[in-house]
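S1.2 Input.
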Amino acid sequence: MPIPRSRVGEGAKQEEEEEIVVEEAAAAPAMEMKRMRSPRGPIDRAAAAAAAEEEEAEEEKKRAAWRWAARREMAMVVAFLLSLPLLVYLLGGRWSGSSAVATSLGSRRDGDEAIGAGGSINTSSTTSPILEDKLLDGLLSPVFDELSCMSRYRSSLYRKPSPFPLSPYLTKRLRTYEAYHKRCGPNTRRYRRAIKQLKSGRNIREMECKYVVWYPCNGLGNRMLTLASTFLYALLTNRVLLTYMTKESQNLFCEPFPGSSWLLPSDFPIQDTYNFHKDAPQSYVNMLRNKVIDNSVNVSADSLPAYIYLHLEQFRLRLENNIFCEDDQLTLAKFNWMILKSDSYFVPALFLMPSYEEELRRLFPVKESVFHHLGRYLFHPTNPVWGIISRYYEAYLAKADEKLGLQIRIFPEAPMSFEDMYDQILACSRKEKLLPEIGTTEPFINSTSNKTKVKAILITSLYPGYYEKLKSMYYVNPTATGEVVAMYQPSHEELQHTEAQNHNQKALAEMYLLSYCDNVVMSAWSTFGYVAHGLAGLKPWILLRPGWMQKKADPACVRSMSVEPCLHSPPNLDCKAKKDVDAATLVPYVRHCEDVSFGLKLFS
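S1.3 Output.
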């Protein structure tokens, strides 16, 4: 399978010669573990503090420039609105307009009119994007060209403000990582030096740059969750993240790091990607088992192979042991090159490790905000995908007073009939008052008030039946409150086609549209749903799976107590005792998931 070429600018050669001071804050916890075994020299704390203050002052200047630009745009908008009456007068009141907004998603069902109780519909846009902090309080770097990736600074404007404050320390670490990535990324002198070491067949001691190469596995939701996990691991272990983007994943996301690329160059010397699996001899677990390496503290870096492979795909509903223990992390830290393949959100496993505890506390004071912040930092749909998202939102969702996202997924290993799932959706919505109640008589509506409430229901599903039946229910019957229900489903592809780029573009667009809703109802176990509500910072209602040998779930749904995704297959280990243990009992902020009884997730 071909590997896309990295698109790094010609300025990289000049940039690689620059000396970039990596602050003390960039030191990874893996290096902290190393210090426990070997002392380090003194640190010029005064110089480090001065550098930090200078960097913070520069960032404040950039944020001030953005705020000034926002105020200037707002002033222009206000001036335009004030001039409207004069324009109407001058044009004799004959100004009329019409627009037809086309969407790239789905069939005519996208344009179905709002249905429900009679009366006029409020056509004023109440939830369109407004001028806000485009940098997300400093989460994003201001140095990108906005037109090259319009979603980067505009996507969040369609959502409510984040419920979680951003740690200044996380912002600082992200800027430091960006400098590190630019210094060590593809097409730099340091990267070429690291590739030379990789080709030699042996590891060497104390290289300036270390790398983790991410390989995809399973569907788009799984890939986004595990990519965010791998980036956090890169932050904790002071590695450069490089991604192997297969053909079906190309043209989905913009580059997240300024001045460099996260794409693995096409001439990367390891091309046998299909040989990376659970039983691969290069995997860390198999090397330990076959005594190719050992995880004792005395193992020297230059005695190790050229790279190590971590296989973190769920197998028999658990991740491999011998990865998330202190001794193993000390050994893994000695490798300059790491290849990681996963389909799991393994962030909760990182929070179980004492050596990372303090760093993670500083990065994420609110534990359940990890994916919310990292997802908004890393994932920015490309302009073609953003065009799909923004056109659909403006055409169908922007005018709604309230938006409810309904994500429905039936898994082959847990089949449910259409009627059983439909009944479960209705039972959940009645209990939680999510969908408007059906009335027995037409409510009186003042046709001149123009204040009828519009509730948009956005359905994402591979199947059209749920949309058709819900639409028919509100078409035939009035709502008890008189509000209007507008039902939308962007696409219905019947089958999942992860291998198709067009399918993945639609899936990504629908994840983002769901994340713009005020509330979300999602299917249990769905990584698609995890991504959507995680980006939004919402606690969803989860449609539970029926128990063993049961036809229907009781209760129909539960409200998640955390915004975080679930790790379906956690490592069950006690590193010190070398025996299995329930990992949910180890720390108070890692507990079992509502939808996966043995899974793990972070709670605040």
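S1.4 Remarks. Confidence is low (pLDDT under 50) at residues 1-49, 84-131.
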